Amino acid sequence: MGFDYALVHLKYTIPPAVGLTWLYRPFFTKLDLYKVVYLILVAVLSTIPWDSYLIRTGIWSYPAHVIIGPKLLDIPLEEVFFFVVQTYNTSVLYLLLSRPTFQPVYLSPERGASRRRWRFTKFAGQIFFSGVILWGWRCIQDDSKGTYTGLILIWAGPFLLMLWTLAYQFILALPLTNTALPIILPTLYLWIVDTLALRRGTWVINTGTKYGVHLWDGLEVEEALFFLVTNSLIVFGQLAFDNALAVLYTFPTLFAKPSLLPSPAVLMRALLTPCSKYDNARLVGLTEAVHRLKRKSRSFYLASATFPGPLRADLLLLYSFCRVADDLVDNASSADEAKDWILKLRKFLDNAYSDSASKPAVEAQVRKDFPVDTQSALLQLPAAKLSHQPLEDLLRGFEMDLAFDKEPMIKTTEDLRVYSERVAGTVAQMCIELIFNWYPSALPAAEQRTIVAAGNTMGVALQYVNIARDIEVDAQIGRVYLPLKWLSEVGLSYDEVLKKPDHAQIESLRKRLLKDAFSLYEKAKDAIERLPVEARGPIRVAVESYMEIGRVLGQDKFKVKAGRATVPKSRRIMVAWKTLNR
């Protein structure tokens, strides 16, 4: 009896597990836990028979003085725990590295020329992994020194072949941070751990079943291969799982109202769905939404990574629509053209929410009235999950902006509140509607409406911060959103602010606006805690990240970039981290 193997865990496998859990804890969802537990079960059940065979045939062994004693099918419990902790660590690292990536946009319908390319790629991979299996078999048959290598390959090869066949698109198309990096990092780490363990004699490989070649002093090539292969299996398993989820949640025409914790049978159905059935228009809409927000709303795109996958997709589509609508109006060459865009947008919404307008009719109107690069944003708007009124109010907010060409629109505090409700409160309200759609609440309908109203209030608070930040920028385009009544109280006129937006008196008005913003924030923030638990942390991050701009503006000196106060990236990350860990 001994504790050498147990000490390997205490020193080298448990600390990374604790650290990775601490890092990822704010993002851990029920679905993440489901994925990790599922893969651990698969890893343990598939590895025990193989490992037991290797021990019983003397390919490797564990001296009695290095293990505590209890065994499962001749496998020391410390070794069984290794299956668990390695799968856990690599899985959580994968989750951490892949979190920022919106994976559904890497699906491909495989039509036309791309179909031939993908088919060739899939077949080439199948040939490769089949060759790996055959090579493993030959190693066992031809040379006893190749036994360990051969057993690794004929055990892992079929799993890799299956996972490749099911998830080759994700394995190849996703960024290396989602694929190669979560394999390479734990593999290198475990190579070091294995080197130390082999030198101490914690586990021993029979000299007659290995080549005797070392990757470096103390690390057998067979052990290096083992950890590379096992980490590849874990990451491939995660990729296959996420591939299934992407199909499940991206194509409502294929899977209507999927469970948030889908069964293995449903996941397999999703993986086996022919790529030719993927809704290409849906994929185009999501891809364009991601590209659009990366260019114009990068802070929101990054913040969206904190939301669970299916909800994130709808939020991206909603923000993409709002961004396109805003750009159509703002970039119009004249007030008349801008009004025309608003009329077309209103017609689109009326059709989208009409019981009499068919889907082809809605599509025809969009194709006729809107530029090609904006059409997907309209057609993929998740209108079925949203109320019509907030979208209509958003257009009214655009109309208020247009009226600035004739006269100042924000005369009183009430005007400011109405404007902010229309351009920002509505968006916050729709975000909460999407949250309740994906995560139904047991709260009474009246209380849910109260939470939605609080969301509108929080949106107003965020818009006040936005206005306080952009006083100089807005003046450059001929607009002042500070109420005329406020200006007169400090002896300023509208035109004076347009000419000199950095006037000394402006700072007092900025602070007044920020005071109102934080008052509304305090009034509405408790409602966040009544949201479904899956959305509380992400909503807190979105709110606190923006309110931090207000806190920076409240300081005597703040950093300005392109006429706007900015929050250093390190500070934003710290705010998000603290917020998620509440």
Describe this structure as you would to a colleague.
The protein is an all-alpha fold and 582 residues long. The chain is built from 23 helices and eight strands. It is elongated, with a radius of gyration of 29 Å. The relative contact order is 0.07.
SSE inventory with pairings:
Blueprint: H1 4-24, H2 30-56, E1 60-61, E2 71-72, E3 75-76, H3 77-98, H4 113-142, H5 147-173, H6 181-200, E4 204-205, E5 214-216, E6 219-220, H7 221-250, H8 264-271, H9 280-296, H10 298-304, H11 309-330, H12 335-352, H13 359-369, H14 372-379, H15 388-402, H16 413-438, H17 445-469, H18 471-476, H19 484-489, H20 494-499, H21 504-524, H22 533-553, E7 560-561, E8 564-565, H23 569-580
Antiparallel strand pairs: 1-4, 2-3, 5-6, 7-8
Annotation keywords:
mainly alpha, two-stranded antiparallel sheet
The portion of residues forming beta strands comes to: under 5%
Quantity of strands, as a count:
8
Overall shape: it is elongated
Distance between the termini: 44 Å
What's this, in brief?
The protein is mainly alpha-helical. In the N-terminal section; belongs to the lycopene beta-cyclase family. In the C-terminal section; belongs to the phytoene/squalene synthase family.
